[in-house]
Amino acid sequence: MDGGNLRISDADREAAAQRLHTAMAEGRITLDELEERLTVVYAARTFADLEPPLADLPGAAVAPSVAVPARKESVHLNTEMGSIKRTGAWAVPRQLRLTTSMGSIHLDLTETQVPADLQVDVSTGMGSVTLVLPPGGSADVDGVKTSWGSVSTKVPHTPTGRGPHLVVTGSAGMGSLTIRYARKGLKEWFTSA
């Protein structure tokens, strides 16, 4: 996933809108063009969405208002009986080691940059690990052993070419490993029908 697919903030939208207002003041675009382009800017969700209304203006690139932390090569998240939850934009390393005895680890990868081939090693004991993938994501869980635990995957097993691919290894002892896409909200259920 490249930087164009990063989610934008309200400050990023405002910076793009300000650039459009300046362009109109300079005589580069008309009032009608300003209104059309502002509609696109305020509906934008990613930096890629901001490119079309600004593409023909000089010096119009909008940089992220908050930099995403540098990516580490490997991270170990460990909890005994507690819980770890990560959402939003966070630096996903190339290798994740997830260990829980009786706790829970919930990682939402839908709003952050994910390496194309993420290596994940899990050890659940009696705990649970949940990985939420962005649309098009996939996961190979053939390397996960279970005793009395469970492995549940609701995403494709092989790469789709439209999202990150996880290779998951380790053990689900007496715990659970779940890999899925984000759940639909009420709005999505009604508009997808």
The total strand number stands at 10
In terms of quaternary structure, the protein is single chain
Shape: elongated
Residues in β-strands, percent: 25-35%
How would you describe the overall organization of this protein?
With 193 residues, the chain is of the alpha/beta class. It has two domains: 3-54, no CATH class; 74-181, no CATH class. It is built from four helices and ten strands; from the N terminus they run H-H-H-E-E-E-E-E-E-E-E-E-E-H. Strands 1-3-5-9-7 form a five-stranded parallel β-sheet, with no helix packed on it. Strands 2-4-6-10-8 form a five-stranded parallel β-sheet, with no helix packed on it. Helix 1 (10-25) packs antiparallel against helix 2 (31-43) and helix 2 (31-43) packs antiparallel against helix 3 (47-54). It is elongated and about 70 Å long.
List keywords for this structure.
5-stranded parallel beta sheet, disordered C terminus, alpha/beta
Write a short abstract of this structure.
The protein is of the alpha/beta class and 193 residues long. Helix content is 23%, strand content 31%.
